[in-house]
C-alpha cells in the first residue's frame, strides 16, 4: 500500500472527486480526515470508510474561513498524530454571462476556489514544517485553467490562479521537503456532471466531440492520480499540474461522436 502510515486531509470530500480521493487513500493505507460543509454526507462517508477497516473521520469546514481551515488541520493532527498529505479539492461554480456577473458572486467563488486552496495549503504546510519529514500537497485545478467557458468567469479565473499558486507554493516549500502539485481534470462524472450532462444528448455530444478518448472520466480516475502524487512514487515531482482529460487539451478541432 503506497500510502501506508500517512495521514491525509481532503477538502470537499463529501462527494465527487474528494470522496473518491478519500476512498482510494484509505485503501492505500492512509488515515483520512474528510472535510466539507455538508456535514450529513461527510459524516456518512467517513463512517462508511471507517467500516471498511480504515482510519477515517470527518470535520465540518468552510475553506473560505481561515479559522475553520485551521480547525480542520488541528482535527487531523489530533486524530492521527500528524499530517502528511493535503488534497485541496473544495470548489464551487457560478454560471453567469460576463456582463451580468455580480461582484458578490465573483468574490464568493474565488473565496472558496482560490483563497480556500491558499488557506488550506498554508495551514497544512505550517503543520508539516512543524512536525518535520516533509509532505505532499495536491491542489485541484481544471482544464479550464488554460481553456475557458464564457459563462463560468470566476471558476475559470480561480482555476488559472490555482496553477500559479501551485507553482509558487512548490518553490516556497521545496526547502522543507514539501512537494506541491496540481491536477486539472477534464469532464468527470461527478454527481453535478451527471445531472447536467447525462440525459442531455446535445450537451453530451458537445463534450465528447472535444474528448479524443470518447468518454467522460470517473472520479476514481482522478483519485488515482492524486494517490500517485501523494506517494513516494512521485518523490521528484513538484510544481506540476497533471491533466487527466481524455486528451482534450491536445485537441485542436473535434472528433466524431457515435450516435
TrEMBL record:
Whether NAD counts among this entry's keywords is yes
For this UniProt record, the keywords arranged alphabetically read as follows: NAD, Oxidoreductase
* GO terms for MF: oxidoreductase activity
Q: What is its EC number?
A: 1.1.1.385
Q: What class of enzyme is it?
A: oxidoreductase
InterPro entries on file: KR_dom (IPR057326), NAD(P)-bd_dom_sf (IPR036291), Sc_DH/Rdtase_CS (IPR020904), SDR_fam (IPR002347)
Record-annotated Ketoreductase domain positions: 6-186
The UniProt family comment states:
Belongs to the short-chain dehydrogenases/reductases (SDR) family.
Which protein is depicted? Dihydroanticapsin 7-dehydrogenase
Q: Which source organism?
A: Usitatibacter rugosus
